[in-house]
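Entry 14. Two folds queued back to back today. First construct below, sequence then structure tokens.
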Amino acid sequence: MNDEISRRLREAAAAHEPDRARILARVERGTADPGVRRRTASIARSWPRAAIVGLVATATLATGGLAVAAAIGGAPLLPATAPPAPTVPSPTATPPTVTPSPTPSSRTTTTHGPAPAPSPAPTWGSAHPTPSNDSRAEDGPLRSEGSLDPHSTIYWTQNNLTLETTEPLTSVTVELRIAQTGGVRNTGSWQTLPGDDFTVTVEEPGGVLLYRWVLEPGRTVPAGRHEFASQYNHATGVRDLEHDSYRIDAHSSGGSFAVWGGFSSTR
């Protein structure tokens, strides 16, 4: 009985002819199905039609063989392993090449050494030093006198200089030199003539406090009596005026004149 069934199954398997057209139609419908993954579809489209037909035939024969083997109770024959589908590499984006920004060069500072010290401005009084043991209180139209202001104290002093002229002066330079006897510091100055008529400076050259008045160009000192004063602090005590001095240089229509001298310490 079993031999008869086995014989008939083998005859049926041998006589079986698969419907190739129907199988191809199903494969093509599956390929056109939008639900199929893009990658699988692209691979299927890239294979030739003959390869697809071959796969269908192989699958049909394998199915028939398995059926016959199952019927006769024998071990199933496994179909030959199909070659793996070619792997389609996914396109990999090439990272852009980043060019590092150039680092700006450090500025180089060239040192040329210390700047030369400016040349000292010429001091008018240095060309006309006033001797401490000499004086000339009168010259031409000029008369002069130096004295200690009566309001001076043991902390602060004012030196007064009186100038009298009998002619208008077109050029005048007045200097008061206060010796540095200890703690001497400028606190101010004044004159009875208009302040805009003079350029006033205070300097400390070589151990003295130098007050200077220079008449502006185009201005005139009228004939009469005029006063100039220097004010300063000093070390506590009665200050000695022995080394203080003054000098006046002036010009008028009658020529150039100069007077100089010291200050009286009579209080």
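Second construct, same run, same settings:
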Amino acid sequence: MTTEDINCVICTNKLSALFEAQVMFSYNISYYKCPVCGTIQTEKPYWLSEAYENAITATDIGLLSRNIDLSTKVFNLITKTFDSSKKFLDFGGGYGVLVRLLRDKGLDFYRQDIYCQNIFAVNHDISDLKENERRFELVSCFEVFEHVADPFKLFEELLSYSSNILVSTVIIPENQSITSAADWWYFAPETGQHITFYTMRSLALIAEKYGMNLYSDGQGLHLFTPKKLNDDPLKQRTSLVDKIRNKLIHILSPSAKSGVISLTQNDVAIAKARALQHIMNK
């Protein structure tokens, strides 16, 4: 391995060779680590076009459970911290599962994804909105940052939609020795799609570059916002009082918690109307 002409995508410092691994069971590639901010990245990912022949990999069997879990966390964050009556965008939203779940909870979410078919959020894609309607209270971007070689380019695209950005990407373990791809499941070399991996320092540098505040659960969910919040809305709380509160939140329906009403019936009416219009236009 050589680190010649390879610099950190976050802080631009020269990288140190970390290990080699076989991606997609075909290509032996190098992984590097930044000695300053801790970011880990692969060599230039020449294999990505092949890796994305299928946008959703066969090994992502956690897609549904992950979206169910995220829908609760996103709903709670938005109804407590942001204006729940406004529009929201799920960037890189895949099949539209999360958008559908959040619309069922009453949040006016839309989907964006140029690589994947919209199955569950038909009629609620960003393409269904006019150009002047494509500004949102918050944009979510889940399991995307680890897929890109230029995080700043992605972040600026997200900023074009909203100044509040909610990201999920798993943070590199702090107290674990990593010397091979087998040491951390998130490398997922069999898919070839995960190419950049972050520390809290990495994310703090992104926030600093754009004058944002960073709030995080310290594991996988991170909020960038210009808002200065009195309390970190993503911080994990494990006291007895917090456990009781979380249990009550789980028991209560979304509408009982926040007054937000499900958009499911409204969306069914929209779908029927558009289907009828399609038939009449034939």
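Quick look at the second one. The mean pLDDT is 89. Helices lie at 48-51, 63-81, 97-104, 151-159, 200-209, 240-251, 254-258, 264-280.
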